[in-house]
Amino acid sequence: MDEVKYMIITETDRLILRTWTLEDLPYGMSLWGNVEVIKHIGLEKPMTREEVLESIKKGIDHQIRNGYQHWAVTLKKSGEIIGACGFNAFHQVKEQERSIELVFHFMPEAWGNGYATEAAEACLNYAHEHIKTDRIIAGVEGGNIRSIRILDKLGFNYMGLVYFEDSKKFEPMYEFRLTPKRR
Predict the structure, then answer these.
(1) Other CB atoms within 10 A of residue 108 CB
(2) For the chain, is the Cβ count within 10 Å smaller at the N or the C terminus?
(3) Which residues are in the N-acetyltransferase domain (predicted)?
(4) Which is it for strands 135-139 and 99-106: parallel, antiparallel or unpaired?
(5) Does the domain spanning 8-182 belong to CATH 3.30.930.10?
C-alpha cells in the first residue's frame, strides 16, 4: 500500500491544516456534497463526486503553483478532516493590488466549536509569513451571521456588495489589510 503524501501547512492547539490528497475524496464529498454546507457557500446544489475530485485536483495544482490552497482542516486528536480553510486567488481587484480570498467551509458537526475562527486565524498568520499579498478578502453568503462574526473577530472590515462569478450573485465582501510590519 502506498503511503499518502500530504504537507502540513500550519498547526494550532487543536487543528492541523494540511494539503489535500486524492485519497481525501470521501471527506471532500462529506463536506462539499452536504446540503447544509452548500447553502452557506453560495452554490445551488451539492457538488458531485466528479466536481469534488476536480476541486481537490485544482487545489493541489494551485498549492504547487502558488503555495496556497483551501487546505484540509483536521483534528489533531483523530486526524479526521472536519473542513477546509485557506485561500483562493482573487482576480476582481485593481491590478496593482495583490489580493487573495480567505475561504472556510466546515462540516455541520464541527460548527459552533470555534474551529473556523481558529483555522482562519492560523491562515492569516500563515499569509503574513509566507504569501506575498497586500490584502485578504472574504465573501460571505448573504445572511451567514456565523461567518460574519468570525470575520469581525479576525479584524476584517466590510467593503460592500461584490458580484461573484462562481455563485452568479452579489455577496457581502470583507477585507483584511496586511501592513508592512505584519508581513
Answers:
(1) 12
(2) N
(3) 15-181
(4) parallel
(5) no
Q: Which residues pair with 106 in a beta bridge?
A: 83
**pLDDT tens per residue, range 46-92:** 999 999 999 999 999 999 999 999 999 999 999 999 999 999 887 65
The grid cell for 65 is 503553483
The pLDDT of residue 182 is: 45
For the chain, which residues make up each domain, given as ranges?
8-182
Q: Are strands 70-75 and 157-164 parallel, antiparallel or unpaired?
A: unpaired
Q: What is the pLDDT of residues 118-170, one digit of tens each?
A: 999 999 999 999 998 888 999 888 778 999 999 999 999 999 998 877 677 78
Residue of 119, 135, 121, 118 whose CA lies nearest to 84: 119
Alpha-carbon span 96 to 149, nearest angstrom? 30
Instruction: Read off the C-alpha cell for 94.
Output: 485593481
Phi, psi values for residue 101, rounded to 5°: -110, 125
User: Angle at which helices 145-154 and 115-130 pack, to 10 degrees?
Assistant: 40
The C-alpha cell at 98 is 495583490
At 130, list the grid cell. 509566507
